[in-house]
Amino acid sequence: MHFKPTGFSRRLAITLALAGMTSAAAPVWAQQPQAASDGVQVGKMSSLRNLVPEEQLEAAATQQYVAIKQQAQQQNILLPENHPQVKRLRAIANKIIPQVTRWNPRASDWKWEINVIAAKDVNAFCMPGGKIAFFTGLLDGLQLTDDEVAIVMGHEIAHALREHGRERVAKSTLTNAGAKLAGIGLSALLGIDSNLTTAATGLGANLTMLKFSRDDETEADVVGLDIAARAGYDPRAGVALWQKMAKVSQNASPQWLSSHPAGQNRITEMKKHLPAVMPVYARTKGVALQALPPYRSNVKGIDPVS
Ligand SMILES: [Zn+2]
């Protein structure tokens, strides 16, 4: 997700919100006609990325993922297969993964993996080739609903589907003539969040962090909404998710705040794309667009999203 609340440990004080009554006014997205080609539209992927062989990138990512899992296991922080959070995430992934080939046909061959690491990091990632990890600091700290998990998962998977990591590696090789597309030089650029390098757990301590551009982040947000909607998860949960993030940031260190100045922009951008994805969501749910109730998160102080 490229949250960077390194070392952030405070949890949201969370209580169940009382269910209020729905607002009478029809939301903007419900007033718009359904587009002929539904869902979100994004531009072409950068052709620069073709400089990097995808097989090589995915193989390196797999290697890194295995190493991260091994380290987590040694530290006893890799949640077991039968852990409720692992089962829950894999169930959500099972609904999301069938939707991904629309965005990258190659992804139908990926060997998907979903794991949960018990660490306080407010983070998650999906490496090239479909290797996903969530941290309990995000899942439990923000008390994510299934819809909100799907938004995060959609976002992370979108980075992989749109090959943002591959593009970054390609750009890096252009600007760094000596760069080698192998070994640590490559794995250092796979899109692993800095949290992995700096977390108290020390996981992947020798990896360098890849920072996606703001454009990549926006694209991942937008494509993630589309993927979540097709899988039957409410895209409006993205708005609630970033409201939760804002609440966390109120209690966080100045360092955290400085790395997340764009929360409100992300909410604005997501709201802009709701008219494109809400009809998709309604169709997946088998209900009329206008019949969808507002999205309600599970914590006090997060407004229902119409
Ligand atoms: Zn991201």
Sheet with most strands: 3 strands, mixed
Low-pLDDT regions: 3-24, 31-36, 177-209
Domain tally: 1
Give the strand tally. 3
The small molecules bound here are: zinc ion
**N to C succession of SSEs:** HHEEEHHHHHHHHH
Structural class, by secondary structure, is mainly alpha
Q: What portion of residues is helical?
A: 40-55%
Q: Write down the oligomeric state.
A: single chain
Shape: globular
Q: What does the average pLDDT come to? A: 78
Which sequence of strands runs across the widest sheet?
A: 1-3-2
Q: List the total number of helices.
A: 11
What's the N-to-C terminus distance?
24 Å
How much is the radius of gyration in Å? 19 Å
> What share of the residues does DSSP label as strand, in percent?
under 5%
What do these coordinates show?
InterPro entries: Mito/Outer_Membr_Metalloprot (IPR051156), Peptidase_M48 (IPR001915). Pfam families: Peptidase_M48 (PF01435). The protein has 306 residues and is mostly helical. It has one domain. It contains 11 helices and 3 strands, in the order ααβββααααααααα. It has helices spanning 54-74, 84-96, 136-139, 146-161, 164-175, 183-187, 194-198, 214-230, 237-250, 254-259, 263-285; strands at residues 113-117, 124-127, 131-135. A 3-stranded mixed β-sheet has the order 1-3-2, sandwiched between helices. A hairpin with a 3-residue loop joins strand 2 and strand 3. The longest helix has 23 residues, at 263-285. The chain starts with 53 loop residues before the first helix and ends in a 21-residue tail after the last helix. Residues 3-24, 31-36 and 177-209 have low confidence and may be disordered. The site of zinc ion has 7 residues, from helix 4 and helix 8. Zinc ion binds next to helix 4 and helix 8.
